[in-house]
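pinging the channel bc i need a second pair of eyes. not urgent but kinda urgent?? the chain im working w is below, pasted from the shared doc
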Amino acid sequence: MKTVKQVADEIGVTPQAIRKKIRILDIEPVIANGCKHFLLNDDAEHLLKQAFQNHKENQEQTVANTTQTVANQTDRIIDILQAELEIKNRQLEVKDKQISDLNSRLEDTTAALVAAQQTAATAQALHAGTLQQQLTTAEATPIESEAAADEFEAETPATEARRGFFGLFRRKA
């Protein structure tokens, strides 16, 4: 005959766990020296050890099942994340191509702008040269330019000059 503490030490559990299993298994206490003590005979001890052994096996099986379930879920999550990563990589490749295309368009546009600026500068220089030539020609023949000014004044009607600024807005009769 063993005490609850002795059996608990042998099995590797607490005395409270042994008392709980005694209540669950409905093991009767042994009366010794006129007091009710939970002294366990060999049959009760064997029954408790078997109950705890089954409990440990169930726990181990539960842990194994849980581990397998977690591993399966982890594998699924990894597969999902890899698929998403592939999608993101394809999207990045498309974006890189778009950026490359935009950069080439920008280079083309910049080259066209530089060419247009050079053409405009050349046209300005040509126009300035033409104006310079006209000015030098006008200085050489001042009589012609005075005659042109006189002609312009002759073509402009005198009535318009008298009407003033607001006269421009009135109807001509």
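so Helices lie at 4-11, 15-25, 42-140, 142-155, 158-163. and The chain has a mean pLDDT of 82. — does that match what u expected or am i reading it wrong
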